[in-house]
Amino acid sequence: MNLNTCLYAFNGVVKREFWRFIQQRSRFLSALVRPLLWLVVFAAGFRAALGVAIIPPYQTYITYETYIAPGLCCMILLFNGMQSSLSMVYDREMGSMKVLLMSPVPRSWLLVSKLLAIALISILQVYAFLGLAWLAGVEPPLWGLVTVLPALVLVALLLGAIGLFLSARIRQLENFAGVMNFVIFPMFFLSSALYPLWKMRESSEWLYWVCQYNPFTHAVELVRFALYQQLNLPALAITLGCTVLFTLLAILSFNPERTVRAAPARG
Amino acid sequence: MNEQPAIEVRHLSHRYGARLALDRVSLTLQRGGFNALLGPNGAGKSTLFALLTRLYRIQQGDILFEGVPVDEAPRHYLGHLGVVFQQSTLDLDLTVQQNLEYHGALHGLSSRQIRARAACELEWLGLAERRHDRVRALNGGHRRRVEIARALLHQPSVLLLDEASAGLDIASRQTINRAVRSLCNERGLTVLWATHLLEEVAPDDPLIILHRGRVCARGSGAAICREQGIDSVTELFERLTGAPAA
Predict the structure, then answer these.
(1) Using the beta-carbon criterion (under 8 Å), do B89 and A98 form an inter-chain contact?
(2) ipTM greater than 0.85, yes or no?
(3) For chain B, which terminal residue's Cβ has fewer other Cβ atoms within 10 angstroms, N or C?
(4) Can you give the pTM of this predicted structure?
């Protein structure tokens, strides 16, 4: 299999994701509205209740909106990653997954291509959100918008890989509600996205440890530090390790036979 | 001239748990021929397709492409295979052209190659005017033609069609059947046409009748009928399978 073939296949997978994304404008809008609601409505209500002390990477007192902005960026990546599992299940049920499987290109490469395509689309949405957040008064350093890019790529890959891994476990489209309740919400709320972990520790020691073991916490911290031009090495190591682990799990658990059984034939 | 069959299936068996779906199936597809695979619903045709297309792993037996077991060179084999599945595999939200571009890219074609090949196949199938339409806007017959255009895009040497005419009206069925037959004559393509509709099979077609996971007849329809002392393929089918001919 030569390099050109793999690149053309990668190009095809990315283009298809973009075509689908462009056609699903409501998906783009909801991806922006969701974190904006948190930023504008939720943060306004909780600003007074949740005072944030000076904690790294911030060097001064910050508004609550500023604190939750990186978490909301990761929220976009989280929802997109899980959406990818939904689209894989949809492709499987509709039969279009077979087109992917009939390709002579190695399946592991096709899955990695899919992962990168999901990441690219997610990151576009994050930057659109950061633009709107800027208008709402969240103003990270301009260079931070550049230094955060590698962190966003890594986190998008991690969450996309978790999504692809889950898609191998989800038998039907209807089961996606379970993903919302058992994956997205716990990952998001049991992390440092909305409140610093020392605050969580004040309330509950065991919840604090649950948050510590949640890879999403470290993904949020990686993005938070990168947005302020700093590198959080432990967060980077954990996020990178989890990305490799879940990418391997996604590739290993990908079972083409399920693709055929999802749409039983009669003949 | 290479007389080796395009595809040879040897003693292929497949189980779903305790249920035996295919039982020591053997068949050959001669190069450049229109081969008909007949069988009532539940005969095992789709299982055989899933194995031929490598969507299922081979549990027992062998599939050879040009004399080489497909497990030894799976990518080479898939690169030579064009497939139309029983259930549509088109992305309804994309246009005809986008569906073809996606498929072409997955087969390692450049954008320029895809555009040229897509124009050629869509023209041949009378769909050139519809290439920017979303697939959702096409009727069943046109969607099937798009699937055939897509299956031919990478210029395969073998075309597998699983109930490609299912659910279509008679005129569309005949159009598609004629188009696929012409591929054998004009391009030398090897075709496996799986169906349960006897009207789609000509008396001289190489025929494989599958029933309850077993090959119960193989050879030219006319020759098998002569051997069995039967007048028509319809009668032959009914006698061998016990199922009413459709």
Answers:
(1) yes
(2) no
(3) N
(4) 0.86
